[in-house]
Design goal:
428 residues; mainly alpha; Na+/H+ antiporter like fold; globular
């Protein structure tokens, strides 16, 4: 058996150490850590080309499976077990509007606008619309926690980002299947018929809620096993780790349901039943463990995101060649975000109590706080050359990177200003 390369272990340990020191530095500077880690990652890539011992850094990058099967279950499960179940239920209506119809509308608006005003064909544009429609869980939760946003605002953003990851992945897979089928037709545009589009909601609901049910079942089984664990802390923490990943893999890989919803469902069940079944203070211990795991996953995502951006683009100056297309994509995303927030308010406000209505400052912050992170990159990179031409695939990746850079470096760094301006900073 071949030995595991020591360089890989050393690289991993080094990246973790750099991420930890970066957190200390950026907190001292009062600069968003998530944004700062992207800068650090890009700097590390450049240093890897200058100093020979650091050359290995230029071969490190995010891969779809690493994000989907290693990092994402951690972030989703942590978010689910730490959600305030009562607060989530109080805001489930606007969260549902944003997380399900919001993603569908965003994907359609962005896809059509990009197909109209950029070189992307309809197939590639719709794939791009689906993958860019999600607000990233890691980016949103980390940033809003850092900024001490109001409880309800944080819940709306956290809940939306938690559920729309699943929505976006499911929608992306459905559109990828439509695109694959279109390649068998003489006119690929014929695949986008009303009959085909009419079938999307049914497929979506099956995959989306099927994943949630699988996760809830796995989480319930876990709680029954814990009843016989004699309240062993190590065993109980270990079982939650197994359940988070088992639920994701079982749903996503074997049942062809949403792995994100499975991890979410398992986490919510553990969260709900934990107080009655787990040993005293054990739920708090489990939450601390998963908070640490999510902290490390979140740090690695944004550090590696910086490395990946440099790895994929090689030279940020190349973005100049697609600046017009990137600008169109950014405007399309912002327009779609404004549209869905407006529709959410229009549908929700007539039935909401006055104190539950979303104020214009809150709506504006939610609009500007729709950050994108690693998941869109994972989906963009996963697009195979068999689905879209290589040139269009490259453009999809460049547009995705351009939007991520914009949301992280522009929106992420200015969000605190708007929270302060509207009196939403450091609120209870």
């Amino acid at each position: 058996m071949r030995d595991f390369p020591v360089e890989v272990v050393a690289c991993f340990v080094g990246l973790v150490l750099i991420a930890l020191f970066a957190h200390i530095l950026f907190r001292k500077l009062r600069f968003p850590c998530t944004v700062g880690l992207v800068f650090v990652g890009m700097l590390l890539f450049k240093l890897g080309g200058v100093f020979e011992p650091l050359n290995v850094l230029q071969r490190v990058h995010l891969t779809p499976n690493f994000i989907l099967y290693i990092l994402l279950p951690t972030l989703i499960f942590d978010a689910a077990i730490n959600l305030d179940a009562r607060e989530l239920w109080r805001n489930i209506v606007p969260i549902s509007y944003l997380a399900i119809p919001g993603v569908l509308v965003t994907a359609a608006v962005v896809g059509l606008l990009v197909a109209k005003f950029t070189p992307l064909g309809l197939n590639a544009a719709m794939l791009f619309g689906a993958l860019i429609s999600t607000t990233d869980t890691a980016a949103v939760i980390a940033l809003f926690n850092e900024l001490n946003a109001p409880k309800r605002l944080a819940m709306l953003m956290d809940g939306e980002s938690l559920f729309n990851d699943a929505t976006a992945i499911v929608l992306f897979d459905i559109i990828a299947a439509i695109v694959a089928g279109s390649l068998l037709l003489a006119n690929p545009a014929e695949a986008w018929t009303l009959n085909t589009l009419a079938g999307i909601p049914g497929k979506f609901l099956l995959v989306f809620f099927g994943g949630g049910l699988v996760g809830a079942a796995v989480g319930w089984l876990l709680m029954q096993v814990i009843r016989f664990s004699h309240h062993d802390p190590l065993l109980e923490v270990g079982l939650t780790t197994v359940v988070a990943y088992a639920a994701f893999i079982l749903a996503n890989h074997y049942c062809k349901f949403s792995g994100v919803m499975a991890a979410c469902g398992a986490g919510l069940v553990v969260n709900y039943y934990g107080r009655g079944i787990l040993a005293e203070n054990m739920l708090g211990t489990i939450r601390k463990f998963w908070a640490f795991a999510a902290f490390m996953a979140n740090s690695l995502i944004f550090l590696l995101l910086g490395l990946t951006e440099s790895f994929l683009i090689q030279d940020l100056g190349r973005l100049r060649h697609v600046a017009g297309a990137v600008g169109v994509a950014i405007l399309a995303v912002l327009l779609a975000r404004a549209l869905i927030l407006g529709l959410t308010a229009a549908c929700y406000h007539p039935f909401a109590k006055p104190e539950k209505k979303l104020s214009w400052p809150v709506l504006f912050v939610m609009w500007w706080g729709g950050l994108r992170g690693a998941l869109p990159i994972a989906l963009a990179v996963s697009i195979g050359p068999a689905l879209v031409p290589p040139a269009e695939r490259t453009l999809v990746i460049q547009l995705t990177l351009g939007i991520i850079l914009f949301t992280m470096l522009i929106q992420g760094t200015t969000l605190k200003h708007f929270l302060r301006r509207y009196g939403l900073h450091d609120a209870a």
